[in-house]
Amino acid sequence: MAGRQLLACALLAAAVGAAVGFQEGLRGHQIWELPSSIPAALEALLRDGLLDALDHSESHRRVHVPAEGLDTARRILGEKGVGYKVLVDDLAEHFQGERRRRREVDSREAGSCTADSCPAPLSDAYMTLQQMEFYLREINTTYAPRVSVQSIGKSVEGRDIWMVHVKSGGCAQGDTQPQVNLRHPRIAYWMMKRRAVWIEGGLHAREWISPAVALQLVATLAQQCSVTRAIDVYVVPMANPDGYLYSWASNRLWRKNRRPISGGGCDGVDLNRNWGYKFGVGASSNPCSEVYKGPATFSEPETQALRDAMTAVADGGNLELVVALHSYGQVLMYPWGWTAEEAPDTPDMRRVGEMFASAAQKRHGTVYSVVNSASGFYYASGATDDWAKGVLNTKYVYTLELRDEGAYGFYLQASQILPTAEEVWQGLRMMLLALTPEKAPAGAPQA
Length: 447
Ligand SMILES: *[C@@H]1O[C@H](CO)[C@@H](O)[C@H](O)[C@H]1NC(C)=O
Ligand SMILES: [Zn+2]
Description:
447 residues; alpha/beta; Alpha-Beta Plaits; Aminopeptidase; 8-stranded mixed β-sheet; 4-stranded antiparallel β-sheet; 13 helices; 36% helix; 16% strand; binds 2-acetamido-2-deoxy-beta-D-glucopyranose; binds zinc ion
C-alpha cells in the first residue's frame, strides 16, 4: 500500500537525512501506549513493521511512531474512537536529556577504559564500538594462546566483525610446561568428545544489552578453566557494528544494518530475517520495514560472515549449542520460528532451556520463560536460530531475549549490565555442563 510505504519511508528518511545532531534522526518521533486491541488498519501497519512495535502484553502494546506517521496513526485511532497514551513526545529530546544525565554520571565513574585501552568490559556504562575493540585486542594478548580474536568478515561499511575463540583444553595450555598431555587416555577422551558452542551478540543495533552481556561472558569464559575444558566457545559479541555506531550517534532505535537502499530513502536490512532458511515468513519485502528481509538470502556481508564462520565451526565437529543474544522480554526461545510445528530435539531443547532458566533465576530472581519461538512469540524466519537448526542441524539452539520486560526496554540502564550478565552466565554454565561428557571411560586413569 503506497500510503503505508510513504509513512515509513518518511520516518527513515528523517532518521537517515539528519545525522548532524545527536539523535536528531528521532526529532518529533513519539512512543505510544495503545490498548492491545486496536483497529485493523493500525494492526496492518504494525504487522508489516511500518510502525515499530516495541512490546506488547495482555493489556497494552507500545509502539514507536515516526513524526511523519503521527497524523495517519492519530486519524486511524480517532476514527475508531480508540484512546492511546503518549509516553514520550519527542524522542530526540528524550535521548538528549538522557545523555546530559549520563554525562554527569560518567564524569563520576570513569570506568576501566582509558582513551586507548580497555582491560575489562565496562559494567557501569555501555561501551562504544571503539572501547569494545580495545577490549578485544587486549584479551587477545592477555589470554593468548587460549583466547584468540580474529575478524570473520566486514560489515557493509567495511568494519571488522570480530570472533573470540575460547579454546578447549583448560587453562594450562600456553604454559611452558604443558599440563595437558594429549596422549593421556582420559585427556584424549575429553578432547575427542570436544564440543563447540556459538554465541552471537549485537545483531540488532538498538539491543545494547546484548553485546554488553556477550563481552561479560567473554571475560568470564577467559578466566574460568574447568567448565569449558572440553568445549570450544566462539563468541561474536558485535555482529552489526555499523548499526550499533548509528544507534549511538543518530537513531537510538535503529535495528537493522546500514545497507544503503537506492531510491526509497529507507536503508538497512534486518539481519535476523536475512538467513537462508525458510526465507520470507514473518518478514517484509518492503525496505522501509523494520523487518525487511533483504533482496535475497544472505545478501548482507554481516550474515555471510556469520554463516561462513558458523559453518567452519560446525565442520570442525560437534557444534552443539547456539545462543543468539537479543533484547528484550526475558524469554528463552527455541525453534522453529517459521512454523509452529515441532523442531527436532524439542524435548531436549526444552529440558536444557529449563535448566538455564532455573539457574538464571537463582542468581537474582529474574524469571526467563522458555517458549517455542513461533507459538510463544510471533512467526519469523530468516533468523540465526532457524538456520542453525535447519541447515547446521545443531542440537541445542536458542534465541535469548535478555532483560527487561519492557519498563526500560531497549534503553535498559547500564546498572543492569552486570546482574544480567551474572544470571545469564549461571544459566549458560548449566547448559555447558549439560554438554560435557559425564564420565571418562571406565578404567581410564585419573588425569
Ligand atoms: C591476536 O593475536 C594474534 C597473535 O599475536 C595476531 O596475529 C592477531 O592479529 C591478533 N588479533 C587482533 C584482533 O588483534
Ligand atoms: Zn533482536
